[in-house]
Amino acid sequence: PIWASSQLDEQLYVRRQRPFQLFAPLIEIGSDARCICGVQKSGEGPFVERECTIYGLCSAQKTKIQLMQCTVCPASAGRYIGPDCRCIEVLNLNNRYLFTHELLEHYTSAFSTSPTPFVAFVQNISRAYESSLEGVPFVSDKIFRSAWFSYADLISWGNDLACQHCGPTPDEVIFDGVSISFSRKQVRNTIRPPTVIVEE
């Protein structure tokens, strides 16, 4: 998000002003397309078109998405290679549910300024959707949680936890709690605090 960026952060794409725009009737597959298993698009077609929904901050838009059968996943899995959608500021969760960066950044802002559980955020957005009278309901908190963590995983955090005045190792650091945590059933010995940068 712009409000959480510094001048040192890498610009991964050009940001636009964002009133909820109408997206193209077909989101086409590009050279950056991939399957959830990691296989990237190679060659051309055959392509199929499927319906999908792009969820924004106050309403959603149904559209179509161009897909290609994954050559590695078993056919019975029904997995497809789909477009990345970063260039249109959209997260493609699973070729069916797509979320605008604006919506995902709004949740990031909400939880970083006050404790905002996913359930409460989804309830608020659901009410905005009802008010829009467009008839497309918002997703469940489970789907939104999956989308947000997928989005957070793609953010290029880098090692930028540095004060512009003190540098990367200040004498004192004060943290105001953890906004997002793992539930008890997900706690494993491999989980580290969110301030730890893991080189992959």
Gyration radius over CA: 19 Å
- How far apart are the termini? 23 Å
The low-confidence parts are: none
- Overall, the morphology is globular
Major β-sheet profile: 6 strands, mixed
Order of helices and strands: EEEEEEHHH
The count of DSSP E runs of length 2 or more, i.e. the number of strands, is 6
Q: Hey, roughly how much beta strand do the residues contain?
A: 15-25%
pLDDT averaged over residues: 82
Contiguous helical run count: 3
What does this structure look like?
The structure is a single chain. The protein is an alpha/beta fold. The protein is built from 3 helices and 6 strands. It has helices at residues 101-113, 118-132, 141-154; strands at 26-27, 47-55, 60-69, 80-81, 90-92, 97-100. Strands 1, 2, 3, 4, 5 and 6 form a 6-stranded mixed β-sheet that branches. A hairpin with a 4-residue loop joins β5 (90-92) and β6. α2 packs across α3. The protein is globular and about 60 Å long. The relative contact order is 0.14.
Key structural traits:
6 strands, 21% helix, globular
Structure described in brief:
With 200 residues, the protein is of the alpha/beta class. It has helices at 101-113, 118-132, 141-154, and strands at 26-27, 47-55, 60-69, 80-81, 90-92, 97-100. Strands 1, 2, 3, 4, 5 and 6 form a six-stranded mixed beta sheet that branches.
